[in-house]
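> example.struct
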């Protein structure tokens, strides 16, 4: 167990040194050691702030993973998802802001307002994008309309319109692009 903790610390330092943590800020390396940051991992893929949320978290994870595997693509490595019930927990791993956040291929953090099937699917789609296209390309060089539009469209997010006109435009642009016979597996550019 001590060797595993040491390995995680070495990986965390390497991540910071190479700048890969820039996906969403340096605090994201804490995802590599969720138990050292107040969570309990009940499996390799699910960590919880509160153990009494286990059944709900497992159901959300299972539904989203099955959906993404069936409708988008199988994972190379199933994502680790940290399920936070409080804003303090969410801030420890991802900062402030959205309902959930994807941290490259390191994992996903679900905040207190993100315990919704299409939100978890959305972040798992980003995980697939990062695996298929690489974290740098997915976060820095692919067009936002493609990256976010794909996640909103293919997660079956029922909100029409989405809360942000810009995000709604991304989804519409992605849907129009797909309607022209393009496939998500071959991104633009």
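> example.seq
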């Amino acid at each position: 167990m001590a060797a595993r903790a040491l390995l995680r610390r070495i990986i965390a330092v390497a991540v910071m040194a190479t700048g890969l943590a820039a996906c969403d800020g340096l605090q994201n390396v804490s995802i590599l050691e969720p138990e050292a940051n107040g969570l309990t991992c009940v499996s390799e893929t699910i960590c919880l702030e509160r153990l009494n949320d286990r059944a709900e978290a497992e159901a959300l994870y299972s539904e989203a993973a099955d959906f993404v595997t069936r409708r988008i693509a199988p994972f190379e490595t199933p994502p680790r998802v940290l399920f936070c019930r409080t804003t303090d927990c969410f801030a420890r791993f991802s900062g402030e802001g959205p309902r959930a956040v994807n941290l490259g291929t390191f994992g996903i953090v679900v905040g207190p307002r993100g315990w919704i099937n299409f939100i978890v699917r959305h972040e798992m789609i980003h995980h697939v994008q990062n695996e298929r296209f690489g974290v740098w390309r997915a976060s820095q060089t692919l067009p936002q309309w493609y990256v976010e539009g794909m996640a909103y469209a293919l997660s079956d997010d029922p909100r029409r319109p989405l809360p942000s006109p810009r995000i709604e435009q991304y989804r519409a642009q992605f849907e129009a692009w797909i309607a022209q016979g393009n496939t998500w597996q071959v991104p633009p550019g």
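> remarks
The first helix runs from residue 2 to 18.
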